[in-house]
Amino acid sequence: MKTYKFLSLLFIAFSLFTLSSCQNSDDDDPQDTSTGNLQIKFENGFNNLGDIVLNQTVQTSAAGQKHSFSALKYVISNISLIDESGKEFKYNENNPDKGAFIIDQADAVAGIVYINLNGIPKNNYKKVKFGLGISQNAYLLGQDGQAEFWTRAKQKGMSWSWAAGYVFVKLEGKYGNTAADTEFMNHTGNMGNVTANNTPDLYREITLNLPTTARVSSQIKPSIHILADLNQFLSGSKTLSLTTENNMMMGSSQHLVDVTNNLTAMFKVDHVHND
């Protein structure tokens, strides 16, 4: 009788182990080609406090200047997700029609601008990478290769003539030493073919670690919340001041190269939701 009970318990334990192993195998099946969706949320702020209100929020720079924004826009493109093994999934690389987005503070909902990505392979992702601006590889495809995004960029005021290309970052507002009362306009971006024109390439790539793994599956749509600290504009790795010499600039002058280098460091992932 005891032998029978022992064998019965052994059979039950083996069955449970086999079932658990199968479930774990299914969960980690490397052949699983299913896809899911992922959301990236951008929140623009100062000193890691979000929700800049256009024409209202005033910041004091490291040099003591006060400044506020009436326009705050930038282009995000070439988004990549990097998994736990270091493998990289590139989302519509160098395809602005499907893979480039304009982050416009005027479109923010409760301080957040949303990007929704679909067709993301099921995986656990540890890093996100993206470009600030449009790469030369994408731009040199010509207007036919990015007609939809070009139209969106024109509508948003994020382009010059086709020969000149895109505005990467558009910052407009007011500044001053005692009060923000003098107009400024800093528009960064490449001027056409940078090699042929011998001009700086202001396209930058940013890679951010995720504090929590983004677990993409057909049932889970992770949300990556990125804070953009616009204090970096004038108070980044190089302290800048707005003057009558640089307060109305477009393109890739040295001042705008410095602005670009500062802004490259403004992004950080605040948190990840796996819902």
UniProtKB/TrEMBL annotation:
<keyword id="KW-0732">Signal</keyword>
<dbReference type="InterPro" id="IPR046863">
    <property type="entry name" value="MbnP-like_dom"/>
</dbReference>
<dbReference type="Pfam" id="PF20243">
    <property type="entry name" value="MbnP"/>
</dbReference>
<feature type="signal peptide">
    <location>
        <begin position="1"/>
        <end position="24"/>
    </location>
</feature>
<feature type="domain" description="Copper-binding protein MbnP-like">
    <location>
        <begin position="35"/>
        <end position="249"/>
    </location>
</feature>
<protein>
    <recommendedName>
        <fullName>Copper-binding protein MbnP-like domain-containing protein</fullName>
    </recommendedName>
</protein>
